[in-house]
């Protein structure tokens, strides 16, 4: 056994060493590639930085040469040359040399090649050369080169060593000469400007930038001569007489061949890793204005080898650490091999266990070959098939099943064989053992090459469970039918229940008002109060039960319509304000993030708000109730917080159950049916949201509603021509109802508040009254005698003259999806809240003509929102998308007020105001400038002088803008009346 272990250990160690060396070779290759890429990337960045710095310096010098050549001083000095001009020229060159710092000489040279003015700079000390020391440069190559140039061209020399009086200046001064010709105004060549740039400054910056590169970095000229590199003794040899030349072509001929073939790039070869860039191609010295001179920047780094990487210090340390690990791993593998024999024995035991499970399982298990013959079956399968397992071996299912069962099973087996997938079917089978419902899972049986060689099947007898499900399904259908019948009965009874309640509550309220006005017996007044309260309570119970039944029956359909959330919330608060005052509570609203206009079912959302606020008011005494609105992208969040009695965790678990309240004591103290919160939760869930509660006994509660909403996208369209003029409406209110008692109740409620009323008892009469009397608003019942209220609404909306008539539905029927489609202002279910009805009617009844407002804004969304809010405030609104369309509308019909955007296409707001002030019919029209832009102070002052009100979109909401517009219209109307009275 010991010798066996030793041999296993040696073999394992040899294999591991070979694998380790192979892995290290792969890793070294990867590291070499990564190192190459890193070096080339770093050198590429460094060469690009050096080249960019040199180009910037050359561009600066070239620009200075062009500027000097075009100065009046240069032209006059080269033409005249008097003392005064010389002083000006010397000051100009002195200032240029002092400002730049790296210009060693600046000169004006005349057409003959003689220096006229020269300034020298040494160690930032600038000196003007006296005239007697000026030299003749007519034989210098750069003078000949510049003398051949046209206006606007610039000469840039190669970088070489400065030569004075025929000798190289020591210490060496690398010099770059830049020159430009000077011409007179009539095109006569006068001379040239020549700038000697001290190359040491260029080379110093080159040395600093070159430190970022790997390997060696050189600066060479177009011919490959070394200008600056890591070996200073080889620099500038081409410029030193008698010195042996040194350059790229002599030291690195392979790299020089690559550089001559390309202007820039990177290459790898026997010379190493090469990175280079050429500032410009070598030329004749005649360089055009936008060219650079011939100069190359070269970086050369050694190419890493596998040997250098594998035998570096880090890898050697790795080898030293890996060897013990390899020894341990080899010992562990040897140990595993010894244990393998034990594992094989364990596998054999598991195989026997699986056989026992197969034989004794209560699941029917069978294995069949590709021809459908049973090759293995357990006892449970024998019980189902009606034969012992031994008798089933070699038989097909045809021998123990009916023809239909055999066909079904054969089809399912073939599906597994063809697809190789696991399938599960519920099967009705008929065997010799009886009729069964089986849940059968089939799986492919495969060989060592994963080829399908048979089918395995496991069947569970679910006959008794299927019979139970059938019984439960019948019971469920019966329960749903009973629930549907209940919902249908309650829905059909809504008219029969609400109609007498409408009369009871309405007549009781009239009697109560008369009794209070005539100071009747207090007992009579108190009795009438109780009758009205009982009727209202009964109406609430009926409405809640009907809502629950409709939701349970799935008969509630959501109707999405654009609605201003803040307006909806204010309406709910206004409705419940009297109840809050009666309990000594203060109602308030906080808008954390203005939700704006959203698409939502306004009727159902208002019902949820009324339920939550009503609960908060009922359970709070002398406290505060806060409604908080917030919108986060596409989610609307509403929170109702009170300072009432609060709830325990056990109570919070029951409050959303129908007909349940926190506990019995709550019901006795505060009353209620326990349906409000249940209805609210179901409505919120129908809207796709959720409702939650947080509470603490004695510290109040917070109910939070979260609903996904879609932003109201106003249709993008051209305002087009103005609609036909609407007939002017007076203060009449039309009540259309075929029930005489209902008409009398509505007339009484409205006339007590000084509102003149006319009536109609049929649909035809209602249409005739609208056309003849032109009411301000119509109260319409749906169930009329000759036609339905929907037919009346459709006829009105089809007539352009009466399409915008405000209509309030007062009916015993529930809200319908057609209310939004036909532009109904409000749907009030009888018996109506008389105070709410009067407040709603007064919004549309005015003593004077309806105000005409023009909204001008290129933002379709904002324009539609603002128009909707103004219409709700009782204004007639027209719209325009730009200033030009606005002026066309105003010339057709001057408005009472213009809400005008500042920044618009075609014609902005200030241009519109200017055009209005120049028009005799529009100069008096009031203007409110509504803008999101920052308006300069001088423009604000100008607008104030023109009596134009300025409103910022970012600072106020739509409701605030509408209120300011309404106040302005009322003030103008009052001033007009006062002027008429004085006249």
From TrEMBL:
InterPro entries reported for this sequence: CheY-like_superfamily, HATPase_C_sf, HATPase_dom, His_kinase_dom, HisK_dim/P_dom, HisK_dim/P_sf, PAS, PAS-like_dom_sf
PTM-bearing positions, type 4-aspartylphosphate: 781, 901
Domain Response regulatory: 732-845, 852-968
Pfam family, one: PAS_4
Reaction catalyzed: ATP + protein L-histidine = ADP + protein N-phospho-L-histidine
Keywords: ATP-binding, Cell membrane, Kinase, Membrane, Nucleotide-binding, Phosphoprotein, Transferase, Transmembrane, Transmembrane helix, Two-component regulatory system
Keyword check for Secreted: no
Membrane topology: Multi-pass membrane protein
Entry EC no(s): 2.7.13.3
Keyword Transmembrane helix belongs to the record: yes
Database matches in PROSITE patterns: HIS_KIN (PS50109), PAS (PS50112), RESPONSE_REGULATORY (PS50110)
Domain Histidine kinase: 492-711
Positions of the PAS domain: 350-396
Spans through the membrane: none
Superkingdom: Bacteria
Protein location: Cell membrane
UniProt name for this protein: histidine kinase
Source organism: Dyella lutea
Organism ancestry: Bacteria, Pseudomonadati, Pseudomonadota, Gammaproteobacteria, Lysobacterales
